[in-house]
Amino acid sequence: MWSSNGGGGVGVVGNGPSPEHILHSVPPIVATEMQQLIDEMRLQDFDSIRFATYRAACKLRFIQQKTKVHLVDIWNMIEAFRENGLNALPLHTVIKTSRAELLLTTVFHNLNKRLVASQHVDTDVSISLLLAFLLGAYDKQNTGRLTVFSIKVALATLCAGKLVDKLRYIFSQIADSNGLMDHIKFTDFLQQVLSLTTAVFEAPTFGFSESAVTQCFHKDDKVSLNVFLDTFLSDPCPPCIMWLPLLHRMAAVSNVYHPVVCDACQVRSFTGFRYKCQRCANYQLCQSCFWRGRTSQNHSNEHEMKEYSSYKSPAKQLVHSIHKSLQCIPASSSGDANIDILNTTGVPIGKPTRPLNLNNIVPATPTTIRRQHAATSSADWPTSPVLLPGQASHGGVIDDEHKLIARYAAKLSGRADYPLSNGRSMNSSMIEDERTLIAQLEEENSMMVREMARLESQTTSDDGLAGLRDRKMELEEKMFEMQQRRRELMMQLEHLMAQLNTGPQPTGGVSSASLSQLPFASDQQLTGVNSNVANAFRAGSLPATSLQGDLLHAADQITTNMSDLVRQLDLAQAEDNGVTINGF
Asked: What is the phi/psi pair of residue 581, to 5°?
């Protein structure tokens, strides 16, 4: 409801800082853009609005729309902070105008990537206007520098998005390591956010002061996130910040259409808020006329007005009124036999006058038939009989369910009929059948486990046999190669012995010329005798009398190698035979 004071303080135009003072505090580079914003804001005639809260919100909404920052939501703004490295800097770090301009360039270029080509914004104009407004609001000393915290607060406040998301982000910036609000940082935040209203000449009502801090929290209060949100989202919120939720409400209703004639300016339809008088019959005003105090007929600004942020057609209003009226009618009269019954919580439970017959919808089941039979049989007895131990009730719901389960189990087991008696014999037979079935299942399970173990052992033995076969083939190939080498060496030895026996026998030694002319005396042809034969036939290296000893030593080594190979083959064959016997 709105009374004569409009629910907000009435700001006096001209008491705040003058436009000339703000322009003097702005660097000359951006003074032109700031002057352009101020001139266009004057043309909107916002200063004629009677209520300071609406006046401040309208001016900041104009800044939002002029700079196109209302198209960027809070999450994209936070992402831009991260991309430009602002999260890694302390809050009170001072950055140059060039870095702030780079941040705004990232914001608006990413915005154009998300929009279709026909809706692209002029990034140069938006960057220059928004940078000029930020410098006019925070650069009072004309230094061309801004703090990281002021940039974050201003852009997070002016961008689009839910107020609760913005407040959560602000709290993350001013909270300590324990998750509680730091009062010094909160004071700095309040000073930064109220600098926005000061920049649009609303300092008399929404300027920063020590009393504004105490309006929100006391110094000794331990403020958590929930307390912080409850304080700023409550109705009413602290007076110094009342324009902030209104700014978001104005953004939410900017496209709400009201097909209603304004009784003051006679416009046939309008958007935004709609106000209806609580005294005059069907007297409605648009937001522009109500904010500026325009009236007609017998209406007065002293009358209470109700604010509407949506529109319902008369037909919908009539249906809604009828629905509310019908809810007030009692379900039955006092003389009716069907009296409402109150449950334990005091909520009336109406007794239906006519029960529903669902026989044609839900087919009768054995459960329902037995329940009906039990109901008819129990009606003949005033009280249910006392059951002896071991007996079951014939009309109980649990017994019916047990019977159905037992019949279904009998059907599955292959029995055509199932006795409907409830004696001990039926229970004992069922138990014996179940035990027999369980024993059969356990026996089958054990057989399956043994079969699986046998298959696993067979698979393991097959793998071992395959490995042994491969090893045997390798050894056989190696033995064949050794036999070939032995045959070649023996032939070479026989040839050498023949040469030595037929040739002349010098007394002192073998000359180097005669030895070098032997056909198999080269190193390349005698490499298989472990260099003993080669050393024996090198020119001038050994006397002729030691050749026979060297040849015999080489032959012994060949014999030793062959015996080792044969031993390995025998061992491999024995292992193969042993695995085969164990596997089968």
From this structure: -65, -40
Cβ distance 47 to 117 under 8 Å? no
d(CA 106, CA 80): 7
Q: What is the pLDDT of residues 98-107, one digit of tens each?
A: 999 999 999 9
User: Residue holding tokens 């012995």?
Assistant: 497
State which amino acid sits at residue 550. Answer: D
DSSP string, 394-432: SS-HHHHHHHHHHHHHHHHHT-S------SHHHHHHHHH
Separation CA 288–CA 449 (nearest Å): 87
Give the helix/strand (H/E) hosting 147. strand 145-147
pTM of model > 0.70: no
Query: Is-contact 89 148, C-beta < 8 A?
Result: yes
| Distance, CA of 25 to CA of 38 (rounded, Å) | 14
The burial class, CB within 10 Å (0-12 / 13-18 / 19+), for 424 is exposed
What are the DSSP calls for 319-353, one per residue? Answer: HHHHHHHHHHS-SS-TTSSS--EE-TTS-EEPPPS
Torsion of CA 84, 89, 94, 96, to 10 degrees: -20
- pLDDT value for 285: 93
In angstroms, the CA 488 to CA 479 distance is 14
pLDDT tens digit sequence for 41-57: 999 999 999 999 999 99
Contacts of 341 (CB under 8 A, 6+ apart): 348, 349, 350, 351
Tokens of 39: 């001139």
Other beta carbons within 10 angstroms of residue 123's beta carbon come to 16
